[in-house]
Request: fold
Amino acid sequence: MAFYVVQFLTGLASAASLFLVASGLSIIFGVTRIVNFAHGAFYMLGAYVAFTLTERFSGALGFWGGIVVAALVVAVVGVIVEMVLLRRIYHSPELFQLLATFGLTLMVEDLVVLIWGPDDLLGRRAPGFKGAVDFFGQNIPSYDLFLIVMGPVVLGVLWLLFQRTRWGILVRAATQDRDMVAALGVNQKWLFTSVFAVGVFLAALGGALQIPRDAVHHAMDLRIIVEVFVVVVIGGLGSIIGAFVAAVLVSELNAFGILIFPKISIILVFLVMAAVLIVRPWGLFGKPEAPARRTPGLTVNPWRPLTANERIAALAALALAAALPLVGGNYALTVGSEIAIYVIFAASLHFLMSVGGLASFGHAAYFGLGAYGIAFLAKMAGLPMIVSLLLGPLLGCLGAAVFGFFCVQLSGVYFAMLTLAFAQIVWSIAFQWVAVTGGDNGILGVWPEKWAAGPASFYWLSLAISALCVVILRLIVFSPFGYALRATRDSPLRSEAIGINAKRMQWTAFVIAGTVAGIGGALFAYLKGSVFPDSLGISLSVDALVMVLLGGVETVSGAVIGAIVFKTLNVWLVSQTDWSKLVLGGFVVLIVIAFPKGIVGTLEVLIARWRPNSPKPPLATSRVEVAE
Amino acid sequence: MSGPRTLLSVEGLTKSYGGVHAVRGVSFELRAGEILALIGPNGAGKSTCFDMLNGQNIPDSGRVTLLGQDTIGRKPREIWRLGVGRTFQITATFPTMTVRENVQVALVSYGQALFNFWSSAPQFAREEAGRLLDLVGMDGYAERPCGELAYGDLKRLELAVALANRPKLLLMDEPTAGMAPRERVELMRLTAKIAREQAIGVLFTEHDMDVVFEHADRILVLNRGSLIAEGTPEQVRANREVRAVYLGEGLVYDARHREGAH
Reply:
């Protein structure tokens, strides 16, 4: 019995940090309507800065002062980020806001390694809370008891701040109607900045308070952000009470989940989240949101199928690509195969994101499931490769069918958060369930059969399948289904009023995208001869988003061009620098701010300008403001 | 009752929010080919009524029978399948698609081709889409991106989309809101012409009394959630209570309409 009580208290202690970070995220979202993907990065920065300060200054004052000062320092960093970056994108489509803050996360991950090194750092124990309390023969660290008290105290302080201060009243008013608050003469800029500072302070404090409990390391941002997303999805974005209750719930589920499913404890949290989403899609304490802003916002040209000439040009490009084995060596062919596979992956995400208006931040899950599908089949059943290639992606299809069903219940930022959370759950399962997936060691020895084993033949196989996937997706874009899917993206209200069941269309699109991604993953497993949890990882999901964005979100063929350019750059970059995440993150931020139409989108604008008798769309993003 | 059949019959429709009775016991009927206006001051319950007819809102009590089918609890898309076209106060169209594609999407849905992944959508029901655009005078705009249209043209496009499922009933929420006076008259003439030719029943809410008195066959007047008058334009105009709560007692107004009537 005592054991369960201790387990319960450990859960409560973990809830404290989770609540701090989640409440910060909620407060920022409430006012600015930005889901700050970089919130985990601020949490991590808080931990690192607090580590440095508490190491340098001794004594109780040095420790507690260091914790608070660390949170303040990171809050100042947050203010700079808000003023330099976020102010430029408050009126951009949600997708761009999510991507920009995600790019920031990538940059911070490399920066902390650059400053503090790649090793785990063990912080000091908290002065006054070094021992443990004996509870019927079980030990409870006294610091855990401190954290358990800390959670409700912060909740109380926040409540007072929002109910009793002038600033709090303004924030609550802005949460309900920020335009009206601006019209009443409140300086919106500074209100937003101060709210962002408070949110970041809470996140950094959450990170700083963790150092006596956990090692500080450079992957803690993604771990916390996924848990925080789960918390706000369950508790309801924008609700501080919801964040508190859900943080306790999730932490307890984790604490006891380890006892019930020691290998895949995360399953329990997933089941609870799924149940909440079915009953209350907007969370336990959240309010139903108004329909999300239209995802596209940069109106380029209306989409049309390729003309006869363009078809010939595309075929010529394909023929040129097929001639690579005549000039390229083995390395070039391997890179070529990888690019072809990434084209499949990017095209599948593009279908979901640009055609369906559903920006998935966890699309790698279905890519990776396809890869694991192949690995299972190759290891266990010993089927012919062609049969495996047909069956393997079905795992991606299955995953997309199950997760997609829940994801399409939501839209906009909730959708993005949920897809990310699901992808991370799949990753955790692949990572934890060593008996089946090999965990971190992956599954090795997934080689293609002889006929496809040579670099040239595998390249041709990848290229052919890639071309086939792109053609099929294009056909669907210009099929009646594709039209109706775009209709649900453009106007949920109107599509419902002409008899379209939007969720069914979107679910179908999700399954199609997941299956095609699975095909890419299947080829990837054969290319590498192995499968690791990385092929389900967040960074791969982000790669896909960047490819689509780089090519042009609002174009039909952007994903293909984006994948080719991105992957080529990426291969080159990784060979040139150790700080690829820093460069990649900076690149993402730059595209969002300076180049939101992508390569193909910009080309279309230039061509439209150059042609004499066509309407002249503006090169800049003036439609975004109009749409707002 | 002789004459055209009853399309829509509403009995005792009631809805409250907390202590506020938004709609109280509203009953009326609408026959094929009839143009019925629902008017009243702001907050009278027009929009609530409307939303309950098209499935966006569920009444506390009452019955709505459309072509012999009970529609309470059905979703908007199911009510559309029964043969109801609708337009919105603020137009709802697909801004990144062309004018023709907007109509084609509605035809795809009407033709039960939503899960057709293989045919060419640009060729789908192209003639029918052209015919509908021709009907509302938008045939010259077929290839234009819908996001570029002027507001009046968007309203006409919405009418074409609303006609795509060959509706028996059109529900139009403030069809002329936000339009210039001349466009208002043109749009309502067009609507009335189509309704008469195809024997479509039309129910619309409207604040422009010129539009209402010129085009409505019958008028329902709502005030504070209850129907206070029902009848032909002449009957409604003469009604004391309607004047008191809504139309007002302007002499000029009276004179102008007496002139117009004769």
Summary: Chain A touches chain B through 35 residues (CB under 8 Å). Confidence is low (pLDDT under 50) at residues 292-298, 616-628 of chain A.
